[in-house]
Amino acid sequence: MLLTAVLIPTLAGLLLPAVRIKNRITKLILLMAVLAAEAGVCVTLAFGGDASFHILRITEGLSLDLGIDGLGRLFIILISVGWLLTGLFACEYMKHEKNEDRFFAFMLLSEGAMLMTALAANMATLYTAYELLTLVSMPLVIHSMTKESVSAALKYLFYSIAGAFLALLGIFFLYKYTSSMSFVPGGSLDTAAAVRDSKILLPVIFAAVIGFGAKAGMYPLHGWLPTGHPAAPAPASALLSGLIAKAGVIAVIRLVYYVVGAEFLRGTWVQTALLILALITVFMGSMMAYLEKVLKKRLAYSTVSQLSYIMVGLFMLSPAGVQGALLHVIFHVLSKVCLFLTAGAIIYLTGKTEAGQLTGIGKQLPVTMWCFTLASLTLVGIPPTGGFLSKWYLASAALKGMNGAFKWLIPVVLLVSALLTAGYLLPIAVKGFFPGGDNDAFRRIHEPRVMWVPMVILAVLAVALGLFSSGIADFTGSLASLMC
Hints:
Elements: H1 2-19, H2 24-46, E1 51-59, E2 62-68, H3 70-93, H4 100-119, H5 123-141, H6 147-177, H7 191-196, H8 198-213, H9 224-231, H10 234-244, H11 246-260, H12 262-265, H13 269-291, H14 295-315, H15 319-350, H16 361-364, H17 366-380, H18 386-401, H19 406-433, H20 449-467, H21 470-483
Antiparallel strand pairs: 1-2
Helix pairs in contact: 1-2, 1-4, 2-3, 3-4, 3-10, 3-15, 3-20, 4-5, 5-6, 5-10, 5-11, 6-8, 6-9, 8-11, 9-10, 9-14, 10-15, 13-14, 13-19, 14-15, 14-19, 15-17, 15-18, 15-20, 15-21, 17-19, 17-20, 18-19, 18-20
């Protein structure tokens, strides 16, 4: 089942351009069948027992292996459901884009690489999948082949490769200090040897975290994200922002909590430096989003900020902080994929791309804008949405578990960022539904069902999972306790 989960989208992505199905309806039915089958396999895996699969032995003590644990279960459900809903939306959206077969092929290949990242059982497998994901997701950015998209794709490639090289440096050093590169909750580091050589090891770990953080848009390797997302088609932007960027989060979690161990980093300058960088990213991303006029670019800067909420929780190195981070992973996926799909629907149906052009859009596209509003409320953190739950856990973790300036600085930065988030998202909804003047000037536009159904599902989940959160909170809490 582990290998099947990776192979289904990978083989489908490789075969799609070769088969050349001329009938579009047939092609889309097959695409959705693949995505639905993949979601079924992932849900089966998630609710099954622990499993492992050996792929290839590279050298003695170094191999490619897949495995499923609590963290993997969480991410494969988010990945498979996110790809399924985005694929349904893309069936309509990609009508006005060229090279549709190429887009769907790399969309499927990216899902395979993303699932391999989530199901990696050791550092060698994770790094391999991480690099593959960069290569197969870059064509999603470059898809339109405009000067802007080519530049954005190259920037994405260079930043990702630079980050991966920093991460590889860390892997080389850590290999010497671990009995195995396999992921072990709490870490597999030889603590005595690591403490002895901490002056060398700590800077290396710091560089590796920064490297993996590049794909998650963390400062200083965040520059690709606000450039790459607006250049890509809306379904690709939704995947890049909501899901593919989570590869960086997965890699950081695996490195810090499953190889190094939180205990080794707790109280060191590395923890302090990483928290400072994450908080800078939270504030900077929110401020840039607030000042941005282009809707998709505004959402991209928002992703820079929101992903660093997750990083702040992880770098607290406490069970409560990790729980808040994992909860924010879930609600960021739901809200941000929904927001990019709504932006895509607006562009597809009206041609409007700037936030200032959206006065009265709620009268024209009511379903789309209701979904935008609910997802925005989640991202801001308004109760009873899921975003409020995750931010409450993050702020509480800082107040109860952190010392010194971070005890008050983290909640303050999160609060200021939430206010800025409200400032760059909610006015769009208010002006969209309450334009003033003659409402008859805004005639309703037909919204295709295949576009609004995925948005409605995501928006409802973002709110409903906040209302009925006890099961998710218990699961993330037990997983966080195991990791720390």
